[in-house]
């Protein structure tokens, strides 16, 4: 006997609302894995491809496996959502733990992608079975039911996809976001089954469903309460005991370590960007060769820590310096933190300095459009092998730099280590030359800490590059030879032939 029309409508609404919530939670799990893979492993394009392709494959497997549960669709769906809530909610915790205490999270990432994909893939066949049990009116055909389910699924995915970067991540962080999503997932799945199909379940099935969901919610609630302690333990395992500042800005995680017996160290998204041990060698080598010649107007791209700015201001004759930095949080830390301000010589307090926040590519394009010209452009940017940085090492980007340089202007570029990653280094050279620059390669030695393309562990794990590689470049004329500055030496290796330039359409770094 078909249920009354009123109950049919209410039941259909609850099923579609559950589809909406489960789809939103599922996409949050996917985006969480992609974000963690990019942060913990590096190379966001490859990691996103691995996570999404594995999950889509696993969803197909889950759909096939769900056929065995259709005869017990109600209890099967309830337990399935409890399992998905537990696995998806705890995924961030486990991935952080494997990275911090094992040093490798790739296998855990693939395992979670498979498990979550299988569980998500099994949802839709079971939901289809459940909604067919409710909608038995003749006018509701199978095609209309499928359309309603997929519409709710797609809209839920849209909401989850927007909520993760704009609400969950900035407000709650990665750990709490995953745990809260898991709790919502468990409540939605359990409530649907108990409210609509509780009478169809045996006493054992009802107790199994209630106890399972309560246990999952208890685990997630406990993990949420302990999340701050866990996060501090992870930071100590990764960065050591000297963590003094740890903040999540709108752009990245910023960690500052210092204290007795150790130098000031600044980590951005897990990558060591500044070490008080040897940063002076890097920044002097980057800036000083480019300052030989006219340098009244200087543009610094990146370098929000103020250390390249410090070296620029040490040269006499500087009239104005514009710093373009993506993350205002880094600049604020460099202005206010006592250790960093001592290291950068209170550079941001100089009245000649103007700070512009935003993407270096977009801001440089605006400067060119406004007719601004500079004598020196200093690119103190993340390593070119990091996917997010590749556009700032492209032929199009260097074309904009060429238009921003005045007569006799020079460009200084950090191009990654010359010895350990020669292909990346010389690809920067090929790209500069394709944009009309004449280049002078050089490197700085005496390196004591690493600027890796992937996450660096402060305990010293992993190989450490032995040098920094740079290019001094000028459009249509030869730049001066780099001077001998604190270990700087000209490159003596021959320039490899046949390397193609990197462009926005075809980035070459990391190949």
UniProtKB/TrEMBL annotation:
Residues 218-475 form the PABS domain. Catalyzes the irreversible transfer of a propylamine group from the amino donor S-adenosylmethioninamine (decarboxy-AdoMet) to putrescine (1,4-diaminobutane) to yield spermidine. It comes from Streptomyces ficellus. The active site is at residue 380. Homodimer or homotetramer. Spermidine binds at residues 283, 305. It is found in: Cell membrane. Gene3D superfamilies: Vaccinia Virus protein VP39 (3.40.50.150). It is a multi-pass membrane protein. InterPro entries: MFS_trans_sf, PABS, PABS_CS, SAM-dependent_MTases_sf, Spermi_synthase. S-methyl-5'-thioadenosine binds at residues 252, 325, 359-360. GO terms for cellular component: plasma membrane. GO terms for molecular function: spermidine synthase activity; thermospermine synthase activity. Its EC number is 2.5.1.16. Pfam families: Spermine_synth. Residues 471-511 are annotated as: Disordered. PANTHER family: THERMOSPERMINE SYNTHASE ACAULIS5. Pathway: Amine and polyamine biosynthesis; spermidine biosynthesis; spermidine from putrescine: step 1/1. This is Polyamine aminopropyltransferase. PROSITE patterns: PABS_1, PABS_2.
């Amino acid at each position: 006997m078909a249920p009354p029309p009123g109950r049919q409508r209410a039941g259909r609404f609850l099923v579609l609302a559950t589809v909406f919530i489960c789809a939103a939670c599922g996409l949050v799990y996917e985006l969480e894995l992609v974000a963690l893979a990019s942060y913990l492993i590096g190379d966001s394009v490859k990691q996103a491809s691995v996570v999404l392709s594995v999950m889509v494959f696993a969803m197909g497997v889950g759909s096939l496996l769900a056929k065995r549960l259709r005869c017990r669709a109600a209890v099967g769906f309830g337990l399935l959502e409890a399992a998905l809530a537990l696995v998806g909610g705890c995924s961030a915790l486990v991935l952080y733990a494997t990275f911090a205490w094992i040093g490798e999270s790739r296998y855990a990432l693939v395992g979670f992608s498979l498990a979550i994909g299988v569980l998500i893939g099994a949802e839709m066949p079971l939901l289809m079975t459940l909604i067919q049990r409710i909608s038995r009116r003749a006018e509701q055909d199978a095609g209309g039911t499928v359309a309603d389910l997929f519409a709710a699924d797609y809209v839920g995915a849209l909401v989850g996809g927007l909520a993760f970067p704009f609400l969950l991540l900035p407000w709650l962080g990665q750990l709490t976001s995953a745990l809260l999503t898991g709790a919502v997932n468990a409540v939605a799945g359990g409530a649907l089954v108990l409210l609509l199909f509780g009478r169809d379940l045996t006493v054992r099935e009802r107790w199994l469903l209630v106890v399972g969901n309560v246990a999952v919610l208890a685990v997630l609630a406990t993990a949420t309460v302990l999340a701050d302690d866990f996060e501090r333990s992870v930071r100590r395992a990764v960065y050591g005991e000297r963590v003094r500042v740890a903040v999540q800005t709108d752009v990245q995680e910023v960690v500052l370590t210092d204290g007795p017996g150790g130098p000031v160290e600044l980590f951005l998204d897990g990558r060591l960007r500044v070490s008080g041990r040897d940063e002076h060698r890097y920044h002097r080598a980057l800036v000083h060769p480019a300052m030989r010649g006219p340098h009244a107007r200087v543009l610094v791209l990146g370098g929000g820590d103020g250390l390249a700015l410090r070296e620029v201001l040490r040269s006499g004759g500087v009239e104005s310096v514009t710093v373009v930095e993506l993350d205002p949080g880094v600049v604020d830390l460099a202005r206010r933190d006592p250790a960093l301000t001592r290291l950068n010589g209170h550079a941001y307090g100089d009245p000649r300095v103007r700070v512009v926040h935003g993407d270096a590519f977009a801001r440089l394009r605006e400067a060119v459009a406004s007719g601004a010209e500079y004598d020196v452009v200093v690119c103190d940017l993340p390593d070119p092998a990091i996917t997010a940085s590749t556009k700032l090492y492209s032929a199009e980007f260097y074309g904009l730099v060429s238009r921003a340089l005045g007569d006799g202007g020079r460009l200084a570029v950090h191009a990654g280590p010359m010895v350990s990653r020669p292909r990346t280094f010389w690809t920067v050279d090929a790209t500069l030359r394709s944009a009309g620059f004449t280049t002078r390669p050089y490197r700085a030695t005496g390196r004591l800490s690493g600027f890796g393309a992937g996450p660096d562990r402060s305990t010293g794990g992993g190989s450490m590059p032995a040098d920094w590689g740079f290019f001094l470049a000028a459009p249509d004329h030869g730049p001066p030879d780099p001077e001998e500055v604190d270990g700087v030496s000209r490159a003596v290796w021959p320039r490899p032939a046949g390397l193609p330039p990197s462009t926005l359409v075809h980035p070459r770094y990391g190949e």
